[in-house]
Design goal:
223 residues; alpha+beta; eight-stranded antiparallel sheet; two-stranded antiparallel ribbon; 26% helix
Length: 223
């Protein structure tokens, strides 16, 4: 019988590890950052896609319009009694072509006050944003036209540009509804000189009746 050879020198050898079919459990794997980003992008895309689908079908996209309604003839709704007291009798009026889309509606109105020659004109624009929130950019757009004076007591944001004897401009944002009221003299410039064919009203403090009439219009548009 052949026996195992004896090992000379007495050196110890390390035992080899026994290999098994299953590897030992390792530390938990961390989620890859790009997978989280991808998941967020997919979720955002789904939300945007659902909003777009509703938009294309003409369904409400979600913003609260706070009761504001679309009108066909803004001149009929805007009474402007306070401006009539300040400027004189209300005369003719006219309307620009209206915008009526699922995302936005807009109507405007131009009204004359005082004598036919040398009177004043008032223009009103009413914009209803049905999808996009106009709030973040409203102040920047107002300041673009030089409207720097903030007005309290009307809407969520309001600015007035006092152009003194030349008129003024009032811009107001109330939720999804945006308003702009412009008043200007009907005098004109000819060969570099101002021509006036009548007596112009005193426009100092004109922002007060403008605000009063716009508050009344805002209330009427919610009825």
């Amino acid at each position: 019988m052949i026996s195992e050879p004896e090992l000379v020198g007495g050196a110890d050898f390390e035992r080899s590890e026994v290999l098994t079919e299953a590897a030992p459990p390792g530390p938990p794997r961390a989620r890859r950052p790009w997978l989280w980003a991808l998941g967020g992008a997919v979720a955002a895309s789904a939300v945007w896609g659902a909003g777009l689908y509703a938009y294309e079908r003409g369904e409400p996209a979600g913003p609260d319009l706070q009761g504001y309604r679309q009108v066909d003839d803004l001149c009929e709704v805007a009474r402007l009694d306070a401006l009539a007291d300040a400027l004189g009798k209300r005369r003719e009026h006219g309307s620009a072509p209206a915008v009526d889309e699922p995302a936005i509606s807009e109507v405007s109105c131009s009204i004359g006050f005082g004598p036919e020659e040398g009177g004043q004109s008032v223009e009103i624009t009413y914009t209803l944003h049905k999808v996009v929130d106009p709030g973040p950019e409203f102040e920047a757009r107002a300041q673009q036209f030089g409207i720097l004076k903030k007005i309290d007591g009307i809407g969520e944001q309001a600015f007035f540009d006092d152009m003194e004897e030349e008129g003024g401009r009032l811009r107001v944002l109330d939720g999804q509804a945006e308003f702009q009221v412009d008043i200007f003299s009907q005098d004109y410039t000819l060969n570099g000189e101002m021509v006036s064919s009548g007596t112009s009203a005193d426009l100092s403090g004109i922002d007060v009746p403008m605000i009063q009439d716009l508050l009344a219009l805002m209330a009427a548009l919610k009825k």
